Amino acid sequence: VQLQASGGGLVQFGGSLRLPCAASGRTSTIYDMGWFRQAPKKEREFVASINWFDGNTYYADSVKGRFTISRDNAVNTVYLQMKTLKPEDTAVYFCAVRNRFSVQFNYWGQGTLVTVSS
Questions:
Q1: What is the Cα–Cα distance from 114 to 35, expressed in whole angstroms?
Q2: 19 touches 114 (CB < 8 A)
């Protein structure tokens, strides 16, 4: 599975941004899609995920109520809608796939940078 994330950029405090991530290749094996982020000098952390079949979603506490993950199975794309952005949301955002043969996310996109100015 190949992943192409986009939509990053510079946004002001309190602003919004939507990140799409398109999957290609063996998309029939997708079980979950998710978003992770890595801020400067910090480890990568989980943001949100969505089950490809039933649409169940999971969020990190730090983004609950502000971020929404959704999917469009017809175009093999997952979206991360981010609202009320804060400077601490500044990070490189990565989309990822867990296929049905793995217990953890095992395919990763190249990342897209989100910068929130104060």
A1: 13
A2: yes
Pair 100, 88: CB distance under 8 Å: no
In whole angstroms, give the CA distance from residue 79 to residue 60. Answer: 16
pLDDT in tens, 51-110: 999 999 999 999 999 999 999 999 999 999 999 999 999 999 999 999 999 999 999 999
How confident is the model over 20-37, as pLDDT tens digits?
A: 999 999 999 999 999 999
Q: Distance (Å, rounded) from C-alpha 104 to C-alpha 43?
A: 17
What is the residue-wise DSSP string for 61-115? TTTTTTEEEEEEGGGTEEEEEE-S--GGG-EEEEEEEEETT-SS--EE---EEEE
- Single-letter amino acid code for the residue at 27: T
Question: CA–CA separation, 88 vs 57, rounded Å?
Answer: 22
